[in-house]
Specification:
Blueprint (H helix, E strand, L loop, with lengths): L12 H9 L11 H29 L4 H8 L3 H8 L4
């Protein structure tokens, strides 16, 4: 993803799917409960980001303005446009 996605590459659910499909037990290590909780939250965040992107795509196809999308998301029109317009 581009730097518009929070200035860092964030994992999408596809990235996680590939990680699970290519899992190598030889390189694995046990996670502490704290690490496990953080990993789960990161995965859930990726799911939510995918859902948000789909909702933004749907809204834009329905001619909802970036301003209204921004209001619904609690951010400015510029912020939502900068983050999602390259992805749709």
């Amino acid at each position: 993803m581009s730097k518009t996605m929070n200035h860092k590459k964030s994992k999408s659910t596809r990235d996680y799917s590939a990680m699970f499909e290519n899992f190598d037990i030889k390189n694995a290590h046990l996670l502490t409960p704290s690490e496990s909780a953080l990993f789960q939250i990161r995965f859930e965040r990726a799911i939510f980001e995918d859902q948000i992107l789909e909702s933004v795509k749907t809204a834009r196809k329905a001619n909802v303005s970036w301003r209204k999308i921004g209001i619904a998301m609690g951010v400015s029109a510029q912020a939502v446009h900068r983050k999602y317009s390259p992805l749709i």
